[in-house]
Design goal:
The complex is a heterodimer of chains A (about 110) and B (about 120). Chain A is built from no helices and 11 strands. Chain A is an all-beta fold and about 110 residues long. The chains are: A mainly beta (about 110), B mainly beta (about 120). Chains A and B meet through β4, β5 and β9 of A and β5, β9 and β10 of B.
């Protein structure tokens, strides 16, 4: 099955700093989602981005499907950005609708 | 209520108890999912229902029994659980499970389960 690798596994930032999170995947995908899991466990949808670039406020994401990676950019980070960021992908064929999750990047933003 | 809701949010049970987790989605979706998230592990897909029919069972032990009476509701019935089943159980929904159709998944807040 598809392998999803996220980097870095842990990231500590000072408030106001910018960061880039990376997601590599091993095969072609027709769905890619970025999630933020807050300290209470809720998974919040950030982007649905199987290809291209999207922006939402201080966050933006780019997926280069042909090169099998996606990047999540966080600018001017705030303490509320802390939590775990997951990338999840779905491939073609096989178990059609199943998302495969990476292990996540744990982000800590210090005041 | 909007989005995906789950009850209860926290549950503590003994190994001989029987309990149920409930998930409800208010998005008009047709596919619903149960995931398990244990400490230090990636999310694990447990079950998938598409148009009320179970399409996936990822080798989940029989002490977990799902039920999907309609496209808006999903239950996970628990009995004779083990301490290692303690985890965060997340429910999700999407428009359709089928490949080729926009299938963005939306998650509920989860039920944090502790088995004593």
């Amino acid at each position: 099955g598809i392998q999803v690798e996220q980097s870095p596994p842990d990231l500590i930032l000072q408030e106001g700093a910018n960061s880039t999170l990376r997601c590599n995947f091993s095969d072609s995908v027709n769905n890619l989602q970025w999630f933020h899991q807050n300290p209470w466990g809720q998974l919040i949808n950030l982007f649905y981005i199987p290809s291209g670039t999207k922006q939402n406020g201080r966050l933006s994401a780019t997926t280069v499907a042909t090169e099998r990676y996606s990047l999540l950019y966080i600018s001017s980070s705030q303490t509320t950005d802390s939590g775990v960021y997951f990338c999840a992908v779905r491939g073609y064929g096989g178990s059609q609708g199943n998302l495969i999750f990476g292990k996540g990047t744990k982000l800590s933003v210090k005041p | 209520e909007t989005g995906v809701t789950q009850t209860p949010r926290h549950l503590v049970m003994g190994m001989t108890n029987k309990k149920s987790l409930k998930c409800e989605q208010h998005l008009g979706h047709n596919a619903m999912y149960w995931y398990k998230q244990s400490a230090k592990k990636p999310l694990e897909l447990m079950f998938v229902y598409n148009f009320k029919e179970q399409t996936e069972n990822n080798s989940v032990p029989s002490r977990f029994s799902p039920e999907c009476p309609n496209s808006s509701h999903l239950f996970l019935h628990l009995h004779t659980l083990q301490p290692e089943d303690s985890a965060l159980y997340l429910c999700a929904s999407s428009q359709d499970w089928a490949s080729g159709i926009r299938n963005e998944q939306f998650f509920g807040p989860g039920t944090r389960l502790t088995v004593l």
